[in-house]
Amino acid sequence: MPNKERILNVPNFLTALRIIFSPLLAYSIFKLSNIFSASLFIILALTDLFDGIAARKLSQKTEFGKVFDPFADKILLLVVVLSIIIKYEFYWILLIFSKEITGIVLLAALLKKNRLMKYTPTFIGKTTTFMQCVAIAAVLLNLDYYFNLVLIIATFILGLIAGFVYLRTALSLK
Fold first, then answer.
1. pLDDT tens string 143-174
2. DSSP state, residue 29
3. Backbone dihedral region of 129: left (phi > 0), alpha (psi from -120 to 50 degrees) or beta?
């Protein structure tokens, strides 16, 4: 009998929370306090950290989680960034997507070469994700405009570096 993975587990539950609560986060940005919105965003962002830890420590890695964890991350980022743009007209926030945009270029390059690469997060990629969360929380908390801008530009630069590291790795595969 084939080994069926158990989809209902702690890491996948935490991943699902990010997807389910993303619309509530958008609502909170428009209708509730900045502190509530930033707190909710931080909690949802932390579920990404904890689902990875739980998957490793509890030996609950699944194919479902490998697909939906990055999907949940992108949904959360997209919802919060679009909400910030609409509410605050703060377009600089788009720069935090540099890692994701470079990832799209990577995917296109890999598809053109008719091969897929196992995605392995790197330190620079994880650092970029952390900086994305810090920058978003700072914007949600309405911190100083120039401070927020510096965080976003730093995140942009890290994202470009992370994206090019992934791209270089993928293109060097034989």
1. 999 999 999 999 999 988 988 887 777 777 65
2. H
3. alpha
Which amino acid does the sequence have at 43? I
Q: Ramachandran region of residue 114, left (φ > 0), alpha (ψ -120 to 50) or beta?
A: left
Q: Return all residues near 82 (Cβ < 8 A) that are at least 6 apart.
A: 26
Residue linked to tokens 């539950």: 13
Tell me the residue type at 125. Answer: G
Output the CA–CA distances (angstroms, integers) from residue 27 to 78, 90, 151, in the order listed: 14, 18, 24
Cβ burial, residue 85 (10 Å; 0-12/13-18/19+)? middle
Does residue 23 contact residue 37 with C-beta atoms inside 8 Å? no
Place of tokens 């530009």: 153
The model carries a pTM of 0.82
